[in-house]
């Protein structure tokens, strides 16, 4: 995957995670809140990977 793809997927996962957390909090669903937090973390990691690839090039 390239830098841009990682960043896009990261943004999507982070946004979806935030939505899950909000829905979970509104409905009192702790499992959904936890899932959302995990997905948000995954998104942040994907974005970071994209930044690293951008700095080092797509050769990694």
Layout: helices, strands, pairs:
Blueprint: H1 3-27, H2 30-56
Helix pairs in contact: 1-2
Pfam families: CsbD (PF05532)
InterPro entries: CsbD, YjbJ_sf
Domain CsbD-like: 6-56
Which characteristics define this entry?
60 residues; mainly alpha; 87% helix; elongated
Structure, explained:
The chain starts with a helix and ends with a helix. The model has no long low-confidence stretch (mean pLDDT 92). The protein has helices at 3-27, 30-56. By secondary structure, it is an all-alpha fold. Helix 1 (3-27) packs antiparallel against helix 2 (30-56). It is built from two helices and no strands. The chain is elongated.
Task: Summarize, please.
The chain is mostly helical. The protein has two helices and no strands.
Low-confidence stretches: none
Strand content: under 5%
User: SSE order in H/E notation?
Assistant: HH
- Integer-rounded radius of gyration: 14 Å
Largest sheet: none
What is the global morphology? elongated
> DSSP helix count?
2
Strand segment count: 0
What share of residues is helical? over 70%
Number of domains: 1
Average pLDDT over all residues: 92
Distance separating the two termini? 10 Å
Family: Belongs to the UPF0337 (CsbD) family.
InterPro entries: CsbD, YjbJ_sf
